[in-house]
From TrEMBL:
UniProt GO MF annotations: transposase activity
Species of the source: termite gut metagenome
Residues covered by the Transposase IS30-like HTH domain: 7-48
Lineage: unclassified sequences, metagenomes, organismal metagenomes
The keyword Nucleus belongs to this UniProt entry's keyword annotation: no
GO cellular component: cytosol
Protein name (database record): Transposase IS30-like HTH domain-containing protein
SUPFAM superfamilies from the UniProt entry: Homeodomain-like
Length: 235
């Protein structure tokens, strides 16, 4: 007996959801009618609605685009692998920066998640690629006796607006830093998520918070009308 997929929706169910929303049915009622858990309906509306509401054709298009993007991002060909190895070992770039540069130059590249997976696979087989990452695939730990830094009004990356995740709007930026040996100097990278447009600037004072914030302000000043969000890795 084939088990029903409890989490995924069919095209027909999306049209049902749209019709039931027009009929003013609640999410719980919709879930009961189409035979899904209410959390599935809630997730569908959050992920696949647009600014004018929920549309079954648009929702299906979003789903199909994500599936296609996922397939493309999984193909780790030999030329891409060589490019990743060069950027990791020679430039000491993070997977996010490797992807940003590739987008800017218009060369084929997998997602940064796939690069991390590739590095983990290499480590599991005895490789040392992970040593080129700043965190070496480990979570950062505070020094003994150190105080935890609390970021006011911090929003988890999982809670950011869906429009940012879909990369449909120009002006959602991600920042990262490349630190030199023995923490001498650093490079600030700023990547626009939709286009992969990459900006880079040397930071003579390293990762000094005030200096970095000042440089970031002037860095994005020419694009001030197109700054909707800025995401960092808190590094």
């Amino acid at each position: 007996v084939m088990k029903k997929n409890k989490k995924h929706l069919t095209r027909e169910q999306r049209y049902q959801i749209e019709a039931l929303l027009v009929a003013k049915k609640s999410q719980k009622e919709i879930a009961l009618i189409i035979g899904k858990d209410p959390s599935v309906v809630s997730r569908e509306l959050k992920r696949n609605s647009h600014k004018r509401g929920y549309s079954a054709p648009m929702a299906q298009m979003y789903v199909d685009e994500r599936k296609e993007r996922f397939k493309q991002n999984r193909k780790l060909t030999e030329p891409i692998k060589r490019n990743i190895l060069r950027e990791l070992t020679e430039e000491q770039w993070s997977p996010e920066q490797i992807v940003g540069k590739a987008r800017k130059e218009g060369v084929p590249m997998v997602s940064h998640e796939r690069i991390y997976e590739f590095i983990r696979e290499d480590k599991a087989s005895g490789g040392v690629l992970y040593k080129n990452l700043r965190h070496r695939l480990k979570h950062r730990k505070r020094a003994v006796g150190g105080k935890k830094v609390v970021i006011p009004d911090k929003i988890s990356i999982e809670q950011r607006d869906e429009i940012i995740n879909r990369k449909q709007r120009f002006g959602n930026w991600e920042i990262d830093t490349i630190v030199g040996k023995e923490n001498q100097g650093a490079i600030l990278t700023v990547t626009e998520r939709k286009t992969g447009f990459l900006l880079m600037k040397k930071l003579p004072k390293g990762k000094n918070a005030k200096a970095l914030a000042k440089e970031l302000f002037f860095f994005l000043l020419p694009y001030k009308d197109h700054v909707h969000s800025i995401t960092s890795d808190n590094g």
